[in-house]
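Most newcomers find our protein records easier to grasp once they have seen one. Read left to right, the backbone structure tokens trace the chain's path through space. Once this layout is familiar, the rest of the handout is easier to follow. The record below serves as our worked example for the rest of this section:


***
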Amino acid sequence: MKITLGAAYLTLALAAAAPAVMVPATAAQAAAAKISNTAATKTAVADAGATTTATTTTRATTTTRATTTGAAGLKTADVSFRTSDGQTLGGRIFEPAHATGRLPGLLLVHGSGQGNRWSELQKEAEEFAKQGMVVLAPDKRSVGYSKMKRDYSQLADDALKAFAVLRDRPEVDPAKAGIWGLSEGGWVAPLAVTRASDIKFMITVGGPGLEPLRTQAWNMTNKVDRAGIRGSVQDLLNRNFYRFGADAGLFPEAHYDPIPTLKKIRQPVLALWGAEDDQVPPAESAEIFRATIPGSVTIRFFPGAPHALWAGGREGADELVPGYAETVGSWVRDVTGGHLPASSADPLPAQPARSVPLPESAWWEGWQAQLLVLVLLVAAFMTYPVAALVRRRRGGAGGSWPARILAASGLVGVPLFIYSVVSMFGSANGHGIDLGPLLAGRPILWLVVQFLAFTTLVTTAVAATQWRTARLRERVLIAGGVLFVPWALYWGLLLP
């Protein structure tokens, strides 16, 4: 039973460790990925050299093949690069077909997700290339990145390797090359920028200014609010279990603080957010960018726009928000043309709720203590029916009705609580969260678990009145019921 419970709790924690700030692929992006998979070309390895600290000094050599794309006036070339740990990742270059002279370069950095293909950024790459840039959309690593493991420093190093390929393209002016990061890429791109002085500018879209755990909890809060969920289950979904997952080490980079890195950026920055972003707090992040980045920073919001600045939001968009690509193109032309803009910021949007910091768990909230309590509860509730069965086979009398109900409600309620939390977290995705029918804002399954918890509470109180005459198995059962009460209060089972 201890092994089973440990596995169940681990599964539960994995649900909490969903990537911070997920940016799901749209229908158009998924279709582009399918085309890419079926029409992939062979590429040669470009070793971008050792990790860069001051400048990206190693030259990158790559074999490319120009092809025709569906975007009018553009040409492409497939490239590859090698990461520091030996992975070979591909990518595609997009550039104006009839441009003359060397152009500004722009490397795109993915949002969250394991093994994202370059094609998921194809729309951005095409639209930015139409603005007169050479754009590299790379693949994202799959090895060393998962819901349970990721390293922003490693992802930044991957970006530097890809940047070396872009910078060394003959059609790119190396003095006019920069980096663009989407969502999680807003944590990664600043790290890359501070390690390489030959990255001349940075653009972020939906860039987070807060730590991942706090950002993801705010993201979940919005999902829960949109779904109409109320009551104690809100705190469970928005707060307690995220802290549990982070404490157990199952939420990667949970407490990464982006502020020290932002303070080191000397390159000009363009930071863009959708005013209706519900995955990253746009107003709070913008406040941090404006107060922290020491150099030129331009902050813009797009009214009515979602997180990734796709016109259709989460519902299968196929176009960028109007004016987005043009804003990027105009700003890059100014910066690379020697016209460094003075820092400026649009008025902050009306963010519906402020994010809440999630402190690290106290010892009694930690996963070790919680797992121990879980094992003790099940053992206490299981002892009574097992002992009663043995006693009955020997011809002894059965137990009292309060004890029977207490054992049954505890044995059913605790595992059902685990199942309910796993299923609730599992139903959350980029679209929101769907917990099925609600009654007074509470999921039906959650109400069933709460009913069992209140039954356990009441029968514990009744059984405790018979403590003096109780047998050992009944006293063990009552002790389990007493331990259950603070545990259930912490997880909201005994709260409205």
The CA atoms of residues 127 and 325 lie 6 Å apart. The longest strand covers residues 172-182.
